[in-house]
């Protein structure tokens, strides 16, 4: 499935948290099923992601945000509940 389409479905039918702070918090709490990182996500953030599968988004953070239906850049997000997206 196309990643952009899967993200839109996850945003609509599941539960997704956006941003570094919320993503790391969901990983610590054991709620994150998968983490999606943009191509230009800082290494300092990537190094903190442990114990959860990571999906690479091929575009930049300025493309990941709109793919999620947001008007701002998103470097990292965590899928808590995938809904009908099939991301997990």
UniProtKB/TrEMBL annotation:
Report which superkingdom the organism of origin falls in. Answer: Archaea
Entry keyword Ribosomal protein: yes
**Pfam families noted in UniProt:** Ribosomal_L7Ae
Name the PROSITE patterns on file.
RIBOSOMAL_L30E_1 (PS00709), RIBOSOMAL_L30E_2 (PS00993)
Where does the Ribosomal protein eL8/eL30/eS12/Gadd45 domain lie? 2-85
Q: Give UniProt keywords alphabetically.
A: Ribonucleoprotein, Ribosomal protein
What is one term from the GO cellular component aspect held by the record? ribosome
Which InterPro entries is this protein grouped with?
Answer: Ribosomal_eL30-like, Ribosomal_eL30-like_sf, Ribosomal_eL30_CS, Ribosomal_eL8/eL30/eS12/Gad45
In alphabetical order, the GO MF annotations are: RNA binding
Concerning its family, UniProt says: Belongs to the eukaryotic ribosomal protein eL30 family.
Q: What is this protein called?
A: 50S ribosomal protein L30
